[in-house]
Amino acid sequence: MGVSKIWKATIFLGFLWLNLLFQSVVGRFVVEKNSLRVVSPDDIKGTYDSAIGNFGIPQYGGSLPGTVVYPKGNQKGCRNFDDSGISFKSKSGAMPTFVLVDRGDCFFALKVWNAQNAGAAAVLVADDVDERLITMDTPEADGSSAKYIENITIPSALIEKSFAEKLKKAVSAGEMVNVNLDWREAVPHPDDRVEYELWTSSNDECGFKCDMLMKYVKDFKGAAQILEKGGYTQFTPHYITWYCPQAFTVSKQCKSQCINHGRYCAPDPEQDFSTGYEGKDVVIENLRQLCVFKVANETKKPWVWWDYVTDFQIRCPMKEKKYNKECADAVIKSLGLDLRKIEKCMGDPNADEDNPVLKEEQNAQVGKGTRGDVTILPTLVVNNRQYRGKLEKGAVLKAICAGFEETTEPAVCLSDDVETNECRDNNGGCWQDKAANITACKDTFRGRVCECPVVDGVQFKGDGYSSCTASGPGRCKLNNGGCWHDTRDGHTYSACVDNEEGKCSCPPGFKGDGVKSCDDIDECKEKKACQCPECSCKNTWGSYECSCSGDLLYIRDHDTCISKRAREVKSAWAAVWAILIGLAMAGGGAYLVYKYRLRSYMDSEIRAIMAQYMPLDSQNEVPNHVSDERA
After folding, report:
1. Is the same domain home to 549 and 484?
2. Residues 307 and 351 placed together within one structural domain of the fold
3. Whole-angstrom Cα distance, residue 51 to residue 65?
4. How far apart are the C-alpha atoms of 333 and 70, rounded to whole Å?
5. What residue ranges are annotated as transmembrane (predicted)?
6. Mind listing the pLDDT tens digit for each residue in 424-449?
7. Torsion angle of alpha carbons 565, 566, 571, 572, nearest 10°?
8. Is 87 a domain residue?
9. Is the dihedral of CA 311, 312, 317, 320 positive or negative?
């Protein structure tokens, strides 16, 4: 490219930057904040603002406690702390370490990366001038910075200079400075539906940020479609465009980067006006993707946008020279979308008039309400608050889930992708039954909670911290309901009672609390059995045995001994009486049958005799012909 071309391109890009700056002045850039609460020492105790860094993974919906450390060397964090022999790794049982570093001399992200490698759980960057807080963004990534930016996993925040001085003074005085970073109110959570939007671009040749954006869209597509299909979220894609200054609308640079006579522009993908794709190609594809969403939304299937965008990225990349209308149309047809409606929505890019779709996008870039202007690409907005942090599936899902009113979160918010893994450390301080491998600790995107679980349909009840007891039917099947049990000589005894109360009660023959122990009762020693003079008592585990001397026989129900002969005589007389009673009952029954049949026979005979001499009511009268008079 010649010097004159480079000069013209530089001037043109300068005008675009001034235009962007002008828009930011007209609107406003809102710094997304989280709350930083100092717990100790008392003289600086209170709540302070901090600006969330636009990299790493903020714990949206949760909080993180820690102890502040201000290193004696490498205080700006621009060098590797390991080279200075400094480590911020927390000892077992100690609170996580928050490293305080000074602003200046290197990128914010590099400071956080060096602290993370040294074991820090979070980083606080102290501003070096008295000013309003700003958002710490990632640099335009080159090969070296891209390697660490994408691997930053800890949260970071910028704090005001005056507050930082208070922290430094307390740390230098030997005070233990305990703080708590709180993201629970960073995203509003008014109801059971979350509205979020993604400001993106179809350009896939802008380096690290484009690669990160494409990976995020592919990874997040599944979760996004589940949330949208379930009615849990309302998603809207947006695309940033700029307009060309009026004085340059007829220039070659403007014509190559803009459509509709300079009204809607995008930077050249390769930053080279003489080769490759042009900015206007990006604007047209952005417009097509907006219209794909609008047409899909009209068919009540807005989630198809995610399919189109991911398929277009895979099938129509710039590197393979497939970033064009023909490839895009093929993707649209494969998804069953109406191509004519999409083309009608796009309009004529050469017309000297406003495009209603892109005009609406430019208006939407200006901040409204609590949301500031959108000037960072990509930008995610959740419940009208701009997301700050790494654009990564788990981090974004956590931020979206934080936007639901508590207890209304969908199941996807309780998946492994958003777990905080606090239960891995000392079981999160919750109740645990190691023998049965049951715990009350549950990881959620808001942090760990201690709730008694439901296992195989059995509900455990308790505070979740010190105790959880199985209750209801079936509880004895799970680790014997937490009650005592033992087996000896082939006999098993249990203190578990399968009822709603869930109490442990020692079985007959035992005494104790029913939970930790049930001791065998010595019935013989405590004189609870075998108390007759002829009885001989022998205690067994869980029971006892009684025997009688000589030919006597022990009767357990009466706790007495009787002779075997007397028992045999008594049994013989009992058999005789049973036979006599049986015969008497049989004879009585036979007599009753005889009497009934005899009476029935006599009744029938009497009726027959009487029928010969007098008519009965049930018989018809017999006509008498003797008295008939004949003429």
Report:
1. no
2. yes
3. 17
4. 59
5. 572-594
6. 777 777 888 887 888 888 776 556 67
7. 70
8. yes
9. positive
